[in-house]
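User: tokens in, sequence out, please.
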């Protein structure tokens, strides 16, 4: 239950950060669209940025978990402290959740009207 709650909080946090980044870059995205950028390029730009942030978080989390699990050896039942299946599974799960959470603001960024974006600046 706590793991699911942590996953939900991580997804909401990444969604919030990505949404904030897209809103801050509204004019830039509008200029890119006005100069002829395809929607797929804008989508890729936003997703790459959020997935790079996620990759750093996963890397730091795996490093921290590898240190902490050695001290929790007595509390792990049926697992070794550095169980590769668990570490890989959690990393992949967080990457998928992050991609889904970031795709909503990324799709919103592809619908930016260049005229509206340029008028707001």
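Assistant: Sequence out:
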């Amino acid at each position: 239950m706590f793991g699911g709650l942590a996953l939900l909080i991580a997804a909401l946090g990444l969604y919030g950060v990505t949404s904030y980044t897209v809103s801050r870059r509204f004019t830039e995205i509008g200029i890119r669209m006005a100069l002829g950028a395809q929607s797929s390029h804008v989508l890729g730009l936003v997703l790459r940025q959020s997935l790079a942030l996620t990759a750093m978080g996963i890397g730091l989390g795996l490093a921290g978990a590898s240190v902490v699990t050695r001290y929790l050896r007595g509390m792990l039942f049926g697992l070794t402290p550095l169980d590769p299946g668990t570490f890989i599974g959690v990393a992949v799960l967080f990457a998928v959740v992050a991609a889904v959470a970031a795709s909503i603001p990324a799709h919103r960024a592809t619908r930016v009207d260049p005229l509206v974006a340029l008028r707001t600046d």
